[in-house]
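The record is given unchanged here:
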Amino acid sequence: MKIHHIGIVVENIEESKEKYEKIFGVESGEVYEDKNMKVKIMFFDLGDVKMELVEPVGENGVSRYLKEKGESFHHMAYEVSDIDLTVKNLKEKGCKVVVEPVEAYEGKVAFIHPKDVGVLIEFVEVK
């Protein structure tokens, strides 16, 4: 398991994209609308770790988070080789899975509740 990306929630992905490109001096990827998660996302490759900008589309957990906390760090994501096995093992350890494995931009993703480890954690099985 390794860190895949750090997720940051933003109000407007296009405006934030320009700001982050300027600050980090890197080009961003394409903006992708994830209909399963009801968000727009975009990644910056920062070497060994990616940074993901996340803009909510409609009412969902991300939009509630944005209203409560503003633009800020949202989640840490870890790459795993078998997401179904990872989720099974997490459940056996008592973790609350808030998003079961679902197809997403780079493959399958799942999330565990922030109360389990103090922060929202995403697991990514890359295609």
The chain has a mean pLDDT of 94. Strands lie at 2-9, 32-34, 39-45, 50-56, 72-79, 97-103, 107-112, 120-126. The first strand starts at residue 2 and ends at 9.
